[in-house]
TrEMBL record:
This is HlyD family efflux transporter periplasmic adaptor subunit. Residues 1-22 form the signal peptide. It comes from the Bacteria. The lineage of its organism: Bacteria, Pseudomonadati, Pseudomonadota, Gammaproteobacteria, Lysobacterales. Residues 79-125 form a coiled coil. It is found in: Cell envelope. PANTHER family: EFFLUX SYSTEM COMPONENT YKNX-RELATED, UPF0194 MEMBRANE PROTEIN YBHG. Keywords: Coiled coil, Signal. Residues 76-190 form the YbhG-like alpha-helical hairpin domain. InterPro entries: HH_YbhG-like, UPF0194_transport. It comes from Rhodanobacter denitrificans. GO terms for cellular component: cell envelope.
Length: 324
């Protein structure tokens, strides 16, 4: 009863103020997340020893700036071998395109003439023995041997004639095509080794800040292992998770206020991306009843005033109520 009488004695102005405060107590919808940078991982192109490190963790670097150097000795040797193989294939192709030498053709003619002479001698010997068989002056085995020798000599003539014809006709187009393909493969292999040699000098692909150098001077990282991790961009962006109830009210290009943990003033941001397919809300972005609901990943670009903010800080974004 005392409480009731006290309330009745309050002035209308106080009651209106209390009602106004009650109406303002409802906070706008929020989306939680973290500050992030575009992370660029520079993998090891070869399992070579680190011979120089030109930067330190946390250092700001420019695009094209040298970060570290791998030992190029082995790759240079592989490049030299590939280049030598390419030169060999190039000479083979030139030989095939030039065709047979005149000396080779003359040699083939001489071989043909010698084979023809031996064939004539073998046929003449067989012709002398053949009439003697009927009179029993020559054994059948000797006659068969003479006949075989004459046939073999004729075969040698045919082989020598074919060798001469092959030289006269020159190189087949298929052989030239094969040599061209082998040369192209050798050149490609040499080019690949040249590219690999260039990758041993690791440089920054974009301007940014060195976040991590996992390996030290003298280490030999496996192929594909990260040699350096770069945080790229002039300023971080906020990666937030938009609850399903507010998804319809968030569009690319919308202006959003981002509140960073440890900072009193909000930062102005603009939505640059929002996923069309939902995800489950991560554990660090759970908000009351929305914990079991789906959320949509979004990225909010921040201005230059956020350039010095580190990655990983928790943030929350104020969202507009979706129209009903």
């Amino acid at each position: 009863m005392k409480i009731a009488r006290t309330i009745c004695r309050l002035s209308p102005v106080v009651l209106l103020a209390v009602a106004g405060l009650a109406g303002c107590g409802k906070s706008p919808p929020q989306a939680l997340g973290t500050l992030e940078y575009d992370r660029i991982t520079l993998p090891a192109p070869a399992a070579e020893r680190i011979v120089a490190i030109d930067v330190r963790e946390g250092e700001q670097v420019k695009a094209g700036q040298s970060l570290l150097q791998l030992d190029p000795a082995h790759t240079r040797a592989e490049l030299a071998a590939a280049q030598a193989q390419a030169r060999q294939q190039r000479e083979v192709l030139a030989e095939l395109e030039t065709g047979p030498r005149r000396e080779d053709i003359d040699k083939a003619r001489a071989n043909l003439a010698a084979a023809q002479a031996q064939a004539r001698e073998a046929r003449a010997y067989y012709a002398r023995l053949a009439p003697l068989k009927g009179n029993g002056y020559v054994a059948a085995a000797d006659l068969d041997r003479a006949r075989a020798t004459a046939g073999n000599a004729d075969g040698q003539v045919a082989a020598a004639q074919a060798a001469l014809d092959e030289l006269r006709h020159g190189t087949r187009p298929e052989q030239i095509a094969q040599a061209q393909a082998a040369l192209a493969a050798a050149d490609a292999q040499a080019g690949a080794q040249q590219v690999l040699l260039g990758k041993l000098a690791v440089v920054a692909p974009r301007a940014g800040r060195i976040d991590s150098l996992p390996y030290k001077l003298g280490d030999q990282a496996p192929v594909g292992s990260p040699l350096a991790i770069l945080l790229a961009g002039d300023a971080p962006y906020a990666r937030i998770y938009v609850p399903v109830q507010q998804r319809a009210g968030v569009r690319v290009g919308d202006a959003i206020r981002i509140f960073v943990a440890g900072r009193d003033q909000p930062y102005a941001g603009k939505v640059r991306m929002i996923r069309s397919e939902p995800d489950f809300t991560p554990y660090y972005a759970l908000i009351g009843d929305d914990a079991a609901r789906l959320s949509y990943l979004a990225e909010v670009a921040l201005g230059a005033d956020a350039a010095e903010l580190p990655a990983g800080l928790p943030v929350h974004a104020e969202l507009r109520e979706a129209a009903k």
